[in-house]
Amino acid sequence: MTEILSREWQDDSSVAALARARAAVNGVILDKAEIVDLAFSALLAGGHLLIEDLPGVGKTTLANAMSLAIGGQLQRIQFTNDMLPADILGISVFKRETEEFEFRPGPIFANVVLADEINRATPRTQSALLEAMAEGQITVDGQTLALPQPFFVIATQNPLDLVGTYPLPDSQLDRFLLRTHIGYPSQQEERRLLIEPDRRDLLADMQAELDPGQVQNLIAAAAQLHVSEPVLDYIQALIKATRKHAGLRAGLSPRASLALIQTARAYAFVNQQSFCSPDSVKAVFPALASHRLQPIPETGIASEDVVSEILETTAVP
Amino acid sequence: MTDRTGITHPPLSPLVWTIAAFLIAAAPHLAAMPAALAGIVILLSMWRITSGWFQWSPIPGWLRILITLALIVLVVMAYGGLWGRRFATGLLCVMLAAKSMEMYQARDLRMVASVCFFLIATQFLFNESLPYLVYLAGGCWAATIALIQIQQIPAMQRAHSGAGMQIQRRSLNQAATLLALALPVALALFVLFPRLAQPLWGLPDEMLDGRTGLSDSMSPGAISELFLDDSPAFRAEFDDQPPPYHQRYWRGPVLWRFDGSTWRTTQFANARGRQSVPITESSLHYRIQLEPHERRWLLGLDYPARSSMPESTITVDHQLLSRHPVTTLSQYEVISTPDFVPDAELTQSERLLATYLPPESNPRTRALAGEMRARHPEDRDLIEAILQMFHDEFSYSLSTAPLGRHGADEFLFDLKDGYCEYYASAFAVLMRAVGIPTRVVTGYQGGFWSEAGGYLLVRQSDAHAWNEVWLEGTGWVRVDPTAAVSPLRISQGSRSVIERERALFEFDWMFELRNRYDRVQHLWNQWVLGFDAERQRWMLERLGLPRLGATGIGLLMIATVILIAIPIALWLLREQHRTARSEAEKAWLRLLRHLRRRRFRKRAAETPLEFALRIEPELGSTGAGLVQLALNYNRVHYGPEDPELTRKFIANATAWRSTGTRAKSGNPMT
């Protein structure tokens, strides 16, 4: 890419740190630069990321690598079906000394929360996490507690047809800014995976490249990125196409269009561009839209197919 | 989707649409086909759908050929020859159904769907009425849907899915849009296609199927279905008010020869009349729109004096005859003089023919005639007396009883109940028995006056038969014995009389509805079917165009079609032509145009960068720098405004275009 960020950001240390973090994650997750870019875009757009794929393709590794590279306080929650909301949010304990209840914060109080296999938990527990994601705060015993900033959730989930899963309701899927799949590695990269050191060792060696303050700065910077008239036209055309599409129950909401423009900015920023081009919009649109759209069941078409059809038929201004 | 034999089954939806289009197009033909053939066509179509559903293996090739040959033989046998419209269309239907046996690839489906359009057009050889047009437009729609879905077969196979509801809905809409877009062009072609004075085809040797109408013979008791047939025979438009009911005698075939049971026309009477009917103050001027009936007579009110139909003649007995059988809807003008009394003189042969009775036939009638003659020596008194007898002792009904050798005897003495043909026949026998020249005239009587349409509708059920009696010193005088029996029949039409017999399934509102519908049909006939060379010229003159020959009209047609097609094409291509917002975009669009000339087309949904990345490798050495150019364009088009960079980009783009062209012309081999 020739057009790099404008001068005021070029020398910023946080931009350089972002580039290093990105490189570090790419060093662990082979051949998935697109996915890594999407993950950083979710972070810089101030949203949360859901990774959906079969067990064993590297969901957790990616989430781990991301959370390690971003730095700050890191918590990992392994979801199981006997989990309760208190296991996530925290619990009030009666202290004999003071004869008062004292709140013990749960794992949700962190900058980066890695929520593994989120759809193995019951809906009640899922909703505890998802409420926190939406509000940036939690309410326990009538007390509202703010979560640390930045607050970034990377969740993984198994495909819905696997045994022992509770599908996330539509309204809660919407809390995730992006949903992405990883897919199998290529032949070449799989060979590298086999001969190179264990990914767990690589992860253990990883160090945080960013700190919470830098991430906050980057989020603010990404939100400032220039979006020109033609790109706004393009975004609106895509949103309109989802609303007009006969195979969908409903189109994307205005919240989703706001999310689209933010994520496209973040994606451009991650790629060190000083403006948002239709390429960025195209890159983030499938991950942003496909989990928010429900095709009419009789058509037998997946929402991913509808989304790529819309991308293939919407003219770029 | 591939079975053991390696045949790929097409998705079900395009297959079903193709066969549906075929069946819709073929249905009117099937109805007229021998039942066995129609059954085979339906069976083959159903087999194809079933085998598509269950993915059966196709019929082996040798068996297909065998079946096809057998079908050809069957069709030839069923139609008894290799000639005629029915045979040709029947063969087409059966062969298309046979084609469905090997309909597995997109091109087979496409072929069948395309031929459906032709099959639809062939239906107009048999029926040109408005409901058919609507029905067949539906057929065109189905065939277009089939073609659209056939086009999508590769996509359906890629997606491993059939056609969902959404694809159905979309192709329905697309087909409707396509047909709607084609409509203006079709209209222009219809209006401006150079018309020939004579129709190109029309096979007079073949009778229209099962059409009822007048005939050149009459045997009382044989053809009463005519009176139940409500289809229009013709329509007449009058300049002023139509003539009163009792004057509405529409003259058809005049019957002279009688063999005891059947009345027939005579050849000599078809000669051109020796006496021309004068045109007077009381003459009626009107226009007739005659439905095709495959015979030569044109209908006119008594007595036609002149007609605008080319090559028509008025015969000795005042029939209006066309030179050729009327096979298409014909329009002509007639002038009739109702108060004219023809033929004060009678030739010897005419007198002989008009008084002839087969010897020994109808003895009782002869006796009765002799008896009455003795009481009424005056001709007019005798006629009066017979009519009075009919009035007193006879009744009118549509019930039929076939008559034997002494038909008049049976009717006058036993039956005493019947309709116009019985009366006209019996009356003529009575008259001839005492030597008064009498003939039977058939045709139509009455008609329904459509106030809104300003025309008189005459239906087949208005068919009528009456007599003409030649009186010494006067000439032929019309006598309608049916009027004596049932004055209502003449003053209000046959419907009022036979009301009782049809009341079971006929209601007034239905009658009303039919009359209203006939007005639509009338306009259809007048402006669509009857749109001939004459009307075309009239219309062009109205538009202020001078007299054009066929070539002139043809050129006008081509010019009009182009003029209509341009806006439609522009509308269809509207997405391809965008106006540039900025100088940079203009330069970029120029670059795209340049590449388009070199066969590289940017898809609308491609971003500039994607396009450049896609085609730079294809361009080879001449394409170097295109990706860089696209990145620069991204910067100036989507980035913050920067006049300096914009200027640089425009310069680069122009330079790239010229080097690209130079490199290309310099290296013709690459």
How would you sum up this structure in a few lines?
Chain A is of the alpha/beta class. Helices cover 47% and strands 15% of the residues of chain A. In chain A, helix 2 packs across helix 10 (212-222).
Q: What can you see in these coordinates?
A:
The complex is a heterodimer of chains A (317) and B (670). Chain A is an alpha/beta fold and 317 residues long. In chain A, the strands form 4 sheets. Chain A has a 5-stranded parallel sheet with strand order 2-5-8-1-9. Chain A has 14 helices and 11 strands. In chain A, strand 6 and strand 7 form a beta hairpin. Chain A has 2 domains: 174 residues, Rossmann fold; 102 residues, Helicase, Ruva Protein, domain 3. Chain B has 670 residues and is an alpha+beta fold. Chain B has 3 domains: 143 residues, no CATH class; 298 residues, no CATH class; 80 residues, no CATH class. Chain B is 52% helix and 12% strand. In chain B, strand 4 and strand 5 form a beta hairpin. In chain B, helix 5 runs antiparallel to helix 6. The longest helix of chain B has 28 residues. Chain B is elongated and about 125 Å long. The N terminus and C terminus of chain B are likely disordered. At the A-B interface, helix 11, strand 11, helix 13 and helix 14 of A face helix 8, helix 21 and helix 22 of B.
Ordered list of secondary-structure elements with their pairings:
The complex is a heterodimer of chains A (317) and B (670).
Chain A: H1 7-10, H2 13-28, H3 33-44, E1 49-52, H4 59-70, E2 74-78, H5 86-89, E3 90-95, E4 100-105, E5 112-116, H6 123-135, E6 137-140, E7 143-146, E8 152-157, H7 170-173, E9 178-180, H8 187-195, H9 199-205, H10 212-222, E10 226-227, H11 229-244, H12 254-270, E11 275-276, H13 278-289, H14 303-313
Helix pairs in contact in A: 2-4, 2-10, 3-12, 11-12, 12-13, 13-14
Chain B: H1 12-32, H2 35-54, H3 61-79, H4 85-99, H5 106-122, H6 130-151, H7 153-158, H8 165-192, E1 217-218, E2 232-238, E3 249-255, E4 257-258, E5 263-264, E6 284-290, E7 297-298, E8 300-301, E9 304-307, E10 313-314, E11 320-321, E12 330-336, H9 348-355, H10 363-375, H11 379-393, E13 395-396, H12 407-415, E14 417-418, H13 420-433, E15 438-445, E16 448-450, E17 455-459, E18 463-471, E19 475-479, H14 481-485, H15 487-492, H16 494-502, H17 508-529, H18 533-542, H19 550-572, H20 583-597, H21 608-619, H22 626-638, H23 643-666
Parallel strand pairs in B: 13-14
Antiparallel strand pairs in B: 1-5, 2-6, 2-17, 3-8, 3-15, 4-5, 6-12, 7-11, 9-12, 10-11, 15-18, 16-17, 18-19
Helix pairs in contact in B: 1-2, 1-4, 1-5, 1-6, 2-4, 3-4, 4-5, 5-6, 6-8, 8-19, 10-13, 12-13, 20-23, 21-22, 22-23
